[in-house]
Amino acid sequence: MAAQETVEHKYVYDFAEGNKDLKDLLGGKGANLAEMTNLGLPVPPGFIITTEACKAYLATGEEPAGLAGQIATHLEALEREMGRRLGDPDDPLLVSVRSGAKFSMPGMMETVLNVGLNDRSVVGLSAQAGGNDRFAWDSYRRLIQMFGKTVCEVPGEEFEHALDEAKRAKGTTNDLDLDADDLRGLVDAYKKIFVKHTGREFPQEPREQLDLAIRAVFESWNAERAVVYRRQERIPADLGTAVNVVSMVFGNLGPDSGTGVAFTRDPGSGAQGIYGDYLTNAQGEDVVAGIRNTVPLQELEQLDKKSYDELLAFMARLEGHYKDLCDIEFTIERGKLWMLQTRVGKRTAAAAFVIAGQLVDEGVIDLDEALHRVNGAQLAQLMFPRFRLDHEFQPVAKGIGASPGAASGKVVFTSARAVELAAEGEAVILVRRETNPDDLNGMIAAQGILTSRGGKTSHAAVVARGMGKTCVSGADEIDVNVPAKRFTVAGQTVNEGDIVSIDGTTGKVYLGEVPVMPSEVVQYFEGSLDPEHVDNPLVRAVHRIMSHADAKRRLAVRTNADTGADAARARRFGAQGIGLCRTEHMFLGDRRELVERLILARTDDERESALAALLPLQRDDFKEIFREMDGLPVTVRLIDPPLHEFLPPLEQLAVNVAVAQERGEDVAKEEALLAAVRRMHEENPMLGLRGVRLGLVIPGLFAMQVRAIAEAAVAVTRAGAVAKPEIMVPLVGAVQELETVRAEAEKIIAEVVGDSGVEVLIGTMIEVPRAALTAGQIAEAAQFFSFGTNDLTQMAWGFSRDDVEGAFFWRYLELGIFGISPFESIDRDGVGRLVRIAAEEGRAARPELKLGVCGEHGGDPDSVHFFHEVGLDYVSCSPFRVPVARLEAGRAAVETDGSDSR
Ligand code: PEP
Ligand code: MG
After folding, report:
1. What pLDDT was estimated at residue 341?
2. Helix axes 537-552, 349-361, angle to 10 degrees
3. What's the CA gap between 305 and 311, in Å, rounded?
4. What is d(CA 251, CA 280) in angstroms, rounded to the nearest whole number?
5. Who contacts 857 (Cβ-Cβ below 8 Å, separation ≥6)?
6. Is 148 in the pocket of ligand 1 (CB under 6 A)?
7. Residue 670 pLDDT > 90, yes or no?
8. In this predicted model, what pLDDT tens digit does every residue of 559-609 receive, in sequence order?
9. pLDDT(2) > 60
10. How far apart are CA 492 and CA 13, in angstroms?
């Protein structure tokens, strides 16, 4: 390989060669290290191996041609700059080898520190550290441990046991009590463990250590936990990771050294100020792992004022440069501050809104940019309920509110148990001393996470915030005993299966199930908190950003509601009409009997009398809804599901009849019902007698509904309100079906509305693939289309919507056939294509055709962007999703239509 060192492809970049916009190539960490270097901040020198090198390695299992030579060249330059050689016995350069993908994946991939240490350079390191043998041997044992575990898959517990053993021998529980001799002994023990598991000696050659560590970082891209995390976070699987090779600086050289994490604003609330954690005499991993409890960053001012002031100046500089909240990792080595990492920091949903609002106030960004920086998933989180606390509930412990929300559930102590109980439909709280990346599946399954150790930047906190999962970390009054499956707190014992409640905003922990109340943001949407007068930065920021979204969006947002109460609530949430009023629930409850009469009718008279009894009830239903939606359009869908859904189940009925016959009772009525249920039984009811087919088969059914709608609209209008009914026909696949229904409906409407001024539109759902493909013809008979993407997804994929998610979607997700259920987020390529075709052909045939969507996708953030792109007029979703859809429609508008500054 060395012979072909002419470089066809550049795989290695010096920090000075990169910048923050090269995240695809250099990963987030590398790109930002480069940016800080170029800003003149004190970054330890180093270089970055690109994501392309990683991808090439993962594709072939071999390092791409030229990479080894480029690493050698950059390493030599680094050695020159540092005035030290990698692993030099007398004065060694040591490096860290760190992963760094385009998107941050906290703790998911590998890092190896202290590369370059061996039996000889450990002595040189001690000399460098002013004869600090303890430090040198501690660094060496850390290298063998990290290298063994991450590069050579030596089980981590073996090293932990050896460390515990050394402490036991010394009669201590504190690592810091081990002296240089103890650590030298530990290095020997570690080396034996290494040989036992790998069949070879711990590599002494520094360049070999470096190369193996680089490969291990490449390979960690495909580690199981990283794969799970990416799927959860919807990070593409093919990005690869960059590798950062950085000269080591040490925070564990004594009391004038330390390491910390800092945020330019509070990532929990968004408040301005200095936030962070600091740990004296420690390496960075100690803070992130949450192994030792940290002190607030402010205390650094007393410990080392010069470094503190310098750090604050750098933080202000970085925030001004990135125009956003930055988080920073730093190390102080004997009074000298080094910046080890920065990035635009993760934050809670509340902080995202508050910070975006503040930055607008400060004139740093405009409102379009503020809108871009928040999203519907965050808004949805802010609408989570909170605990309703009265004196009955006293917290038993208080940790750090690491990720907001209110969660109650059964206590579990292992990831596996969390997954098991969640699969049985139980809400669980995963309780751990501290979490590590192997707990990921349990964290996904749990309602909330509670740890007894670790700060705001511990693994549990960072991952939970990313997932939007409630988390309390560092609740150190809790004593967790995982093997015994219990924890103790305030003199009480809590066993697996007991219920606890955790508040991720305040950090408080309660025993038992605490009742919940609406969040402030919901109170604002409900109209009970006035944003202009309330002293609540979150409510003011949400109000401001929502108002901008409303001003910008092209999509109207309607709601799916079939009761007056739902309609009223959705209207308060900003719904601009009803996009789907499902009428089937109106046939349940005490009306079931009338429906039975309708279905069982043997003569026209019997059927007509049942319909006549239903008519006034339906009319009242619609009147209530039209009144609530005064002035706004209301799409009422004619009855859709198979009628047998209104009848008793076949098996149960058959048993009842048989038993009654046995007893010699008169069962004539039940027999008639049984015969009807048998007659109507279908193998595939979702593909059977439902939707428009019902209306065509049962005379008078649709006519009754149309009459009830028209009469209700006239009555409400005469009473002074404005009713705007739109009658929607479900499950249409051919224009002839619609034409037939429409002809009958128009006659009834003309007769009922007379000169009342009420206008009734007639349109159809597009939810059968054939309807999408013949939309040009169907538009001739429809004044509007509403995409029923639930059925459209079901029929386009051939997935029974009631069965598949539980049956096999887990496997499809695992195989990456899709990254998210197509029932949750629109499948753009398939179902989306049908939507596009129908929208285009429908509009070509009838330019004024109104287009909307009323399937579940109408409230899904990604899908809203798609519907915006396709040019629909509105989305319709459940009342609680209305604000989310408003926000995302605004975001879609500023993102795709370009932004202007306001
Ligand atoms: C749909 O199919 O997308 C739809 C809105 O109708 P339903 O869910 O009632 O079948
Ligand atoms: Mg449907």
Report:
1. 94
2. 80
3. 10
4. 8
5. 789, 824, 825, 826, 863, 867
6. no
7. no
8. 999 889 889 999 999 999 999 999 987 887 778 888 888 888 889 999 999
9. no
10. 57
Q: Which of 27, 151, 45 is nearest to 100 (CA)?
A: 27
Distance of CA 390 to the CA centre of its chain: 32
Q: Is 580 helix (H, G, I), strand (E, B) or coil?
A: strand
Closest residue by Cα to atom 3, ligand 1, is 788
Residue type at 782 in one-letter notation: A
Measured from the alpha carbon of residue 792, the closest ligand is: 1
Task: Specify the amino acid at residue 470.
Answer: T
Residue of 54, 74, 326, 459 marked active site: 459
- For residue 735, give Cα distances in angstroms to 638, 670, 775: 17, 40, 9
The answer to whether residues 357 and 541 touch, using CB atoms and an 8 Å cutoff, is yes
858 and 877 Cβ atoms separated by less than 8 Å: yes
Residues 685-733 pLDDT 10s: 889 999 999 999 999 999 999 999 999 999 999 999 999 999 999 999 9
**55-64, 282-291, 659-668, 718-727, range with the lowest pLDDT:** 282-291
**Which residues lie closer than 8 Å to 577 by C-beta, 6 or more apart?**
556, 558, 559, 629, 632, 633, 634, 635, 724, 874
Count of CB atoms situated within 10 Å of the CB of 683: 6
pLDDT of residue 444: 87
pLDDT > 70 in the chain, percent: 96
Q: State which residues have CB under 5 angstroms from ligand 2, the bound ion.
A: 767, 788, 791
Q: Which of 558, 686, 767 best tests ligand 1's pocket when mutated (most atoms within 8 Å of CB)?
A: 767
User: Within 13 A of 299's CA, how many CA atoms are on the CB side?
Assistant: 12
How far is Cα 49 from Cα 52, in angstroms, rounded to an integer? 8
* Cβ 84 vs Cβ 92: under 8 Å: yes
Give the other-Cβ count within 10 Å of 663's Cβ. Answer: 8
- How far, in Å, CA of 688 to CA of 683, rounded? 8
Is residue 233 within 8 Å of 104, Cβ to Cβ?
no
pTM above 0.85, yes or no: no
What spacing in Å lies between the alpha carbon of 849 and ligand 2's midpoint?
20
What's the mean pLDDT when you consider all of the chain? 91
Nearest Cα neighbor of 826 from 842, 839, 815, 841 is 839
β strands within 504-621, DSSP E: 508-511, 516-517, 556-560, 578-582
| C-alpha–C-alpha distance, residues 544 and 370, integer Å | 10
Contact 147, 192 (CB under 8 A): no
Identity of the residue numbered 619: R
